[in-house]
Design brief:
- The chain is mostly helical.
- 72% of the residues lie in helices and 0% in strands.
- The chain contains 21 helices and no strands.
- The chain has helices spanning 57-91, 95-111, 113-123, 125-145, 149-166, 168-177, 181-212, 221-224, 226-240, 254-277, 281-306, 315-318, 323-351, 356-362, 364-375, 377-384, 387-400, 403-406, 411-441, 449-479, 493-521.
- α2 packs antiparallel against α10 (254-277) and α4 runs antiparallel to α9.
- It is globular and about 60 Å long.
């Protein structure tokens, strides 16, 4: 376990020389934003008070380093999507195994995220971040060396667990580095852009690496690319990233850690295996066990908090004004997106017979649309608030509506039309991601940014895992066959299944719009969600 709890709880530790304060620091997070008129603000003494002066170039360099790690982790989640048919052929894997190659990473990522945030709060966010990057780099090398699908699944789980350690530190480091709201807004906006662009870079980069086929390594290059990036981050982090930690005196919540880690596998593993095994009885028992685990987790966490302990899921985070609605919106939005990317990749390669590079090119308009929409995020959100999120979700809905007509066209025409609809969807996503992340973090108390970031990232990754498993299941059931069994699927079977799946995705986009409307109705502060 890295380091030990600080012995001087009121003191902020930093790897950079602090500039002299010229004015009282505004707390990180949104405690001030949540103060009601006529009520005295209740501030909590924390160890990681944010700087009060303008950030230095070194501060911004440190944020660049942690965002590079975010980019690496996000790419690795989606680069496998494009490479999955190639991995399947090379390793002789089933569609269910390929789902686990993708989902194993996401499940481990999501299951360990809250714990990763807690470790950063306790032992130092910079230190835990560096350990996470080192573990991720080693796990990437192991993935590239795997000779079988089952070993690749195991290595991907290890890689996801490493990502769970490093990723929660990113938002916490941002919150702890910047004392002024506008600077935090800019950094959070950049974080949201990196999340979206990482998706596109993963989808395009995966196709490019497979097409180039460096040294005949084929799909293994998609994992090897992380090794030099990880080493660069490890070299750049020590002199640039600020160290910070929270005041913690209670023992680490090990029971909460174990229960949290058990919930997601209990739900998502049977969801992925169900169609392949005919939904046997043990799968339904696993679903029931998931409900019991969730109930037991919250009951234990509430009791621990009542005894004065340090719960893994603090009630002050979960009950923050607007936080539950924010998390519901995050769940629906990211579940739909992750499932869409997987299904669209299989449709492009199996039905339209595009190679991995051609598949990546079809996704280019997504990145362009996302970048354009994100760049306008600050001005639009300042003026229109959560209506920006609603507009983005409705644009995504519209992008699914032409699918019944598109699948009737020829292969080349379909690829062009799909690229256009993907571009529209990218604009919608760009209007949602950064403001939604910022709004969620605006509800987190200043002394719990690690926990809040962990919860947010956990919900995000769990939603993506749920989308991959759930939407993948819808697609497979609609096909009536496993997607790789192309010989047994009628000519129009892929198109019909794709249309059915897009109908489900359209409903999820509408649900995102409705939840965004409810978020605005709740009076939730939006200032932290503004992109700069």
């Amino acid at each position: 376990m890295p380091g030990s709890p600080p012995t001087s709880p009121k003191r902020c530790t930093s790897s950079l020389p602090p500039a002299p304060a010229t004015s009282p620091a505004r707390p990180s997070g949104s405690t001030a934003a949540l103060t009601r008129p006529g009520k005295e603000a209740r501030m909590v003494a924390v160890a990681d008070t944010t700087p009060s002066t303008r950030p230095s170039p070194r501060d911004w360099a440190g944020i660049g380093v942690v965002l590079l790690a975010t980019f690496m982790g996000q790419i690795d989640m989606f680069i496998v999507n494009v490479a999955s048919p190639s991995i399947q052929v090379d390793l002789g894997a089933s569609f269910g195994q390929i789902q686990f190659v993708i989902d194993g990473y996401v499940i481990a990522y999501a299951a360990g995220m809250v714990t990763g945030g807690k470790l950063g709060d306790r032992f130092g966010r910079k230190k835990v971040f560096q350990y996470g990057v080192a573990a991720f780099t080693v796990a990437s090398l192991l993935c590239a060396l795997c000779p079988t699908a089952n070993l690749l699944i195991v290595a991907r789980v290890v890689q996801g667990a490493a990502a769970a350690v490093l990723m929660p530190q990113v938002l916490s480091i941002i919150q702890g580095t910047f004392g002024q709201l506008r600077d935090r807004q800019r950094a959070i906006g950049a974080y949201g852009s990196v999340i979206g662009l990482g998706v596109v870079a993963g989808l395009i980069g995966g196709g490019l690496l497979l097409e180039v086929d460096v040294a005949g390594l084929e799909w293994r290059t998609i994992f090897l690319i992380n090794v030099p990036i990880g080493l660069l981050i490890l070299l750049a982090a020590p002199p640039t990233v600020r160290e910070s930690r929270s005041e913690v005196t209670a023992p680490l919540d090990m029971v909460g850690t174990v229960l949290t880690a058990a919930v997601l596998p209990a739900l998502l593993i049977p969801l992925s295996l169900g169609p392949e095994h005919g939904w046997p009885l043990w799968i339904w028992f696993s679903f029931a066990a998931t409900a019991l685990l969730v109930a037991g987790l919250f009951r234990y966490e509430n009791r621990l908090a009542a005894r004065g302990g340090d719960p893994l899921l603090p009630a002050r985070v979960l009950r923050g004004r607007g936080f539950p609605t924010s998390m519901a919106t995050v769940t629906v939005f990211f579940a739909g997106n992750a499932g869409y990317f997987l299904v669209l990749t299989y449709y492009l390669q199996s039905a339209l017979h595009l190679d991995p590079l051609g598949t990546g090119v079809v996704f280019v308009p997504l990145g362009v649309g996302f970048a354009v929409a994100s760049s306008a995020g600050r001005r639009l959100t300042e003026r229109y608030g959560t209506r920006v999120l609603i507009t983005g979700a409705l644009l995504m809905t519209v992008s699914f509506l032409p699918m019944p007509f598109i699948v009737q066209a020829g292969a080349d025409t379909q690829a062009v039309l799909l690229a256009a609809t993907i571009g529209l969807s990218g604009i919608g996503q760009g209007l949602v991601v950064s403001p939604l992340i910022g709004i969620a973090m605006a509800q987190v108390p200043a002394d719990l940014t690690g926990s809040g970031s962990g919860v947010l990232n956990t919900v995000t990754q769990a939603a993506m895992a749920l989308g991959i498993a759930g939407i993948g299941t819808v697609y497979r059931v609609a096909l009536g066959h496993s997607p790789q069994d192309t010989a047994s699927i009628p000519a129009d079977g892929f198109g019909d299944a794709f249309v059915v799946t897009c109908g489900v995705l359209a409903l999820l986009a509408v649900a995102t719009a409705v939840l965004s409307w409810l978020l605005g109705r709740s009076g939730t502060p939006i200032e932290a969600g503004v992109q700069a």
